[in-house]
Specification:
alpha+beta, 4 helices
Length: 172
């Protein structure tokens, strides 16, 4: 996957964070950063129309995973919204989390939880092959970038997505 920036000096910490998350987790189709609400929204697309029962179970599963994770870490979260939209034959799952309490381990938990859930129809771009050390480095990089974004609030809403092996980030 290639990453292109028109002007490197204009790439913000938030843009770098979104890019790194998309590179590390091919299951995440798009990411939105909202500086007003101080949230990011991870969007996962399923190549199927999930029915109400499936979606309710999936939402409860994600809520439970995040709640248990936070209890074990002796933390709490401020914002956790899980919504979905059905567009033709696709279901888009949107998971919104506040940046103040979000950590990389939660992102990893969400993605791994979705992979282990009984749904196998998550649309992913063919990921590059990474060695375990590379994956660990990317996760550490995400954690560092999360801390930097928390410390340096930005005022631009961003939208990042993949397109033919590239990650593109736009101001909203």
């Amino acid at each position: 996957m290639s990453i292109q920036c028109k002007k490197i000096e204009e790439a913000t910490e938030a843009a770098n964070l979104l890019t790194t998350i998309l590179v590390r987790y091919p299951e995440v189709s798009t990411i939105n950063y909202d500086p007003v609400k101080n949230t990011i929204k991870l969007n996962i697309i399923f190549n199927d129309v999930l029915n109400g029962k499936q979606l309710l179970r999936l939402k409860n599963y994600i809520y439970d995973c995040i709640s248990v994770y936070n209890k074990l870490e002796k933390k709490s979260y401020n914002i956790l919204n899980i919504t979905y939209h059905v567009i033709e034959t696709f279901t888009i799952l949107k998971i919104e989390r506040d940046l103040d309490t979000l950590v990389q381990g939660e992102i990893s938990l969400i993605v791994e939880g979705l992979n282990q859930y009984s749904l196998t129809n998550i649309i992913t771009e063919k990921p590059e092959v990474f060695y375990e050390d590379d994956l660990k480095f990317q996760e550490e990089l995400i954690e560092t970038m999360l801390e930097n974004v928390k410390a340096n609030k930005e005022n631009k809403s961003l939208f990042a997505f993949r397109d033919e092996g590239q990650v593109l980030v736009f101001n909203k």
